[in-house]
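ok, trying the design again with the full structure, not the truncated one.
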C-alpha cells in the first residue's frame, strides 16, 4: 500500500494585513511533497507576501502555515534549514566572483569544508559555470546569473525551494534551460514552489493556485483549472489590424471577454460557434481583414482573465 506523504506546504486561513490594507486574505492551499507548484497572480496580488510569511520573514496577522510539518511562525529555524529561497530581485553580490558568492552563501547556510567543496562543484556543473569560477558576477549574462542564484539557493540541499519570479526579464532560451534544471531537482525529490506571470511556465507545473487581491480564486492542476473554471469557449481570430478588431467585437455585446493574445484576438462566449458569422460581419464592417477564425481549447491565460473578471 502506497503511503502519501504529508503536504510540503499547508496554509490555513493565512492572513496578512498592513494597517487597513489586506495583502493576503484567509488563504488555504496545500503543496504536495516532491511536486512543482505554481503560485500565479498579477503584481501586488500577495504572492511575495505569502512567501515571506512561509519563510518566517513576516508574521501572519491570522491563520497558520506549515512547511514540512514545521510551524512557519514558531519553528522558523527548522523551516529555514530545510528551505531554499531565490528572491525576485537578483540577490548575489556583483562585485564578488562566482565562486566567492558560492563560498559566502554556503557558509551562511552552515555548509563548510569538504561538503561545501562538493556542493560548489555540483552547482557549477549544474549551472554550466565550470570554467567561469573566477569571473565577476556582474559580467555574467542574465541567464547565467539566474542559474548561479538558483545554485546558491540549493547549496545546503533544501527539501523545498521557493522561487519568486525567477525568470523575469530572462530570454526564452534561458527560461527553458532554467525549467529543465527545476525538473531535474524535482526528480531528485525536491519540492518546487515557484511564482510566475508566464502562463507557458504555469502549464509546466503539476498544480497551481491563482491569487488575486490577496484571495485564492482557483486552484488545482492546469487541466482541472481549465475544465472547472472556464465558462464558454474561446474563438481565436487572426486578423489585422487588431486595434480595430478589439472594439468591434466588444461592441457586439455578445462576448463575455475580448482580449489581445500576441498578434491574435481571443473572444469568449457560450456557444461561440454560432456567433462566428456575426463576429465576421462586424469585423468586416469595421475594416478588419480576417485571415481565419478558430474555436480553440482555453489557455491558462484565458481562464485567468475570465476568472478575474
Amino acid at each position: 500500500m502506497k503511503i502519501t506523504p504529508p503536504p510540503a506546504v499547508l496554509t490555513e486561513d493565512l492572513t496578512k494585513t498592513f494597517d487597513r490594507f489586506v495583502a493576503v486574505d484567509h488563504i488555504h492551499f496545500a503543496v504536495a511533497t516532491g511536486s512543482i507548484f505554481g503560485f500565479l497572480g498579477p503584481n501586488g496580488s500577495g504572492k511575495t507576501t505569502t512567501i515571506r510569511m512561509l519563510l518566517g520573514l513576516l508574521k501572519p496577522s491570522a491563520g497558520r502555515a506549515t512547511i514540512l510539518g514545521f510551524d512557519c511562525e514558531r519553528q522558523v529555524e527548522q523551516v529555514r534549514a530545510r528551505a531554499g529561497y531565490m528572491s525576485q530581485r537578483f540577490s548575489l553580490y556583483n562585485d564578488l566572483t562566482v565562486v566567492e558568492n558560492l563560498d559566502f552563501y554556503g557558509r551562511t547556510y552552515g555548509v563548510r569544508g569538504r561538503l561545501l567543496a562538493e556542493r560548489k562543484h555540483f552547482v557549477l556543473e549544474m549551472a554550466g559555470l565550470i570554467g567561469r569560477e573566477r569571473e565577476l558576477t556582474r559580467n555574467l549574462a542574465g541567464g547565467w546569473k539566474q542559474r548561479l542564484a538558483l545554485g546558491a539557493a540549493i547549496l545546503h540541499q533544501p527539501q523545498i525551494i521557493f522561487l519568486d519570479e525567477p525568470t523575469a526579464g530572462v530570454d526564452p532560451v534561458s527560461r527553458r534551460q532554467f525549467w529543465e534544471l527545476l525538473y531535474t531537482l524535482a526528480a531528485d525529490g525536491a519540492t518546487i514552489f515557484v511564482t510566475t506571470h508566464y502562463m507557458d511556465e504555469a502549464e509546466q507545473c503539476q498544480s497551481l493556485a491563482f491569487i488575486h487581491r490577496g484571495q485564492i480564486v482557483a486552484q488545482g492542476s492546469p487541466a482541472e483549472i481549465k475544465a472547472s473554471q472556464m465558462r464558454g469557449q474561446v474563438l481565436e481570430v487572426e486578423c489585422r489590424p487588431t486595434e480595430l478588431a478589439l472594439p468591434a467585437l466588444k461592441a457586439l455585446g455578445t462576448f463575455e471577454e475580448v482580449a489581445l493574445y500576441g498578434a491574435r484576438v481571443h473572444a469568449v462566449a457560450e456557444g461561440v460557434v454560432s456567433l462566428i458569422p456575426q463576429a465576421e460581419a462586424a469585423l468586416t464592417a469595421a475594416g478588419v481583414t480576417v485571415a481565419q477564425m478558430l474555436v480553440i481549447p482555453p489557455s491558462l491565460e484565458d481562464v485567468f482573465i475570465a476568472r478575474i473578471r
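Keeping the full-length input from now on. The chain has a mean pLDDT of 92.
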